[in-house]
Amino acid sequence: MAVIPRRFLVTTESPLPHDPIPTVRGPVAAAELGITLAHEHLFVLSSEFQSNFPHLWDREAGVREAVRQQERAYAAGVRTLVDMTVLGQGRDIGLVRAVAERTPVNIVLATGIYSVNGIPLFARFRGPGALIESEAPLIELLLSDITTGIADSGVRAGLVKFACERTPPDAAAHRMAAVVAEVHRQTGVPVVVHCDPFEGNGIALVRLLEKEGVAAGSVVMAHAGGSADLEGLRALADTGCVLGCGRYGMTPFAPDEQRNATLAALVRAGHTAQLPPLGDRRALRSTR
After folding, report:
1. pLDDT tens readout for residues 104-146
2. Which residues lie closer than 8 Å to 276 by C-beta, 6 or more apart?
3. β-strand partners of 43
4. Which residues make Cβ contacts (< 8 Å) with residue 273, sequence separation at least 6?
5. Which end of the chain has the lower number of beta carbons within 10 A, N or C?
6. What pLDDT digit, counting tens, does each position of 146-200 carry?
7. Span 207-231, average pLDDT
8. Can you tell me whether residue 84 is helix, strand or coil?
9. Is the separation of the CB atoms in 195 and 202 below 8 Å?
10. Is the pLDDT of residue 251 over 60?
């Protein structure tokens, strides 16, 4: 787990619009969340590979390592972690619950779709007028994660996410934006977008969501802070969205010194309230 400067960690000193917050162990009052890592991954898996080649993956060893990482985080003062692992990244509520039962860290879960190259196969050919005629499948599935619980577990998701690395956003991104916007409209949960900070598609994605009825202030543009383009980041911040400034320790994307300099520049520009650090580090490096 990368070390993030303490002054950049999220705290919950001001009221939040959704309170209490759903976590794996049950609702927690926003004021009790404490220092929060706002974008992490306990596990990122390619489930078909793990199930078909079991020698690639030791489930219990994975849980032990994730617990060890959470114990380190707790000792450093972290009290809550937001796990952004969604469909397409091997989300497994059983694994997450096994970690939550053995660590005091609160874990908030997400729903959504991670697919940077189009609509997932399950949904691509399903829907009104599609090869398999049906209602649009994704909206109801993602809604159920938030309103009822993930996989009949009773553990509810607290936000909705999708991914787009295309510039400009392609037809798949337009379809997914419409899906998450409807989920947001019905539940009020925040929308998180995995963007491409290097191509700089964040503003286009904010505008796309705004056209679908999502206010920029309800959007987190994950990974935006990996860009070294401060002028572009200030323009993105001026839309009113939240900028994800994380991936600490993932130096192939950007060195930590650059990330700190970017955060400091954005703070000086008056965007402090829009800057929760999004770590985006996996507790266990799994086969993908």
Report:
1. 999 999 999 999 877 888 888 887 777 788 777 899 999 999 9
2. 10, 36, 38, 39, 220, 242, 244, 245
3. 284
4. none
5. C
6. 999 999 999 999 999 999 999 999 999 999 999 999 999 999 999 999 999 999 9
7. 96
8. coil
9. yes
10. yes
Q: How many residues does the chain have?
A: 288
User: Tokens standing for 181?
Assistant: 């916007």
Residue type, 269: A
- Residue 112 tokens, joined: 């959504």
Note the helical H segments in the chain: 47-52, 59-75, 93-100, 121-124, 137-147, 171-187, 202-211, 230-237, 256-268
- Name the average pLDDT for the chain: 89
Between the two ends of the chain, the Cα-to-Cα distance in Å is: 19
**pTM summary value:** 0.88
Over its C-alpha atoms, the chain yields an Rg (Å, rounded) of 18
- CA–centroid distance for 135 within its chain: 26
Residue 224, SS3 per DSSP: helix
Q: 97 with 24: CB under 8 angstroms?
A: yes
